[in-house]
Structure formats: structure tokens, C-alpha cells
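Listing S7. Sequence submitted for prediction.
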Amino acid sequence: MIPLPTIDVLDAVTIPIACPVSWDAMHGDDRTRFCDQCSQNVHDVSELTRAEAVQLLTDGDKLPCLRIYRRQDGRVMTADCTTRRDRLWKWLHRRSKWAAAVFALVFFASCDRPKDCIAGGIEPPPPAQTAVEQVTEKAAHSVVAAVAAEGRRAAR
């Protein structure tokens, strides 16, 4: 059986002729304003939840005046309409415990000594030597090596 798409009454609404009166010229609140020209309430669907908007369309005999915004996919925007960002955060929130467990598993599996796994337990690298210190250290090593070689020769 092929599932048929359900037609939402709110998404099927079309407004053939837009009202010439601007929203700012009407008086009322953000959800509903009164139009003096046509003597009707105009409802901003983007401030209503989807259930409130559907109830508004299906309750009365006469269709109400509506102010609607459509998304790029053709659906009517309502107050409970989620954006792409909201859906992404919801998806991440549902998977955060799983991601934390995987991260901990990978992090602790890379520890070869218990001391490395404790915060602050890793010893800092030795301070860098200056060029003079490096030359002095090499000279000292060569002197020690020469003395040791001379001592071996003398012992024979």
C-alpha cells in the first residue's frame, strides 16, 4: 500500500489578494490586530502555534484574515516551527552522552601509563638550552671521552 501524503489545512491556505493595509497601521498586539478598513481581526500565524492556527481555520464558518510567512519548502511558519539550527541542537543533545563515552574510550585507551591519564600528571619537557650551553656541553662530553680513551690506553 502506498502511503498518501497528508495535507495540512494550514499549508493548503492561499491568499490570492494581499490586504493593502500594512500590519503597522493596524492596532492590537503581535498575535492579532484589528483592520479598520475591512473591520476584521487579522491574525499573524507566525505568532500562533500550529494547533492554534489550525483551530482558527477550522472553527468558524468564515475564513479569518491571516498574515502568513512561508518557508522555502512551502510550509507555513508558526511559533512552534523549528529551524534548522534548533533541529541540529536537538540532534546533538540526544547524542551527547554517546559522544562523550566514545571520546573517553578513545582518550583512555591511548594512555600507556596510569600517570599519563591523570590531569597534570604529564611532566613538562625540559627547558630549551641556549647555543652557548649546547656548545659547552658538547665540549665537556668530548673532553670526558678523550680522558676516558687516554685512561684506557694507559691501562693497557
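Caption to Listing S7: primary sequence and predicted C-alpha cells for the chain studied. The first strand starts at residue 27 and ends at 28. The helical segments are 50-59, 84-109, 131-155.
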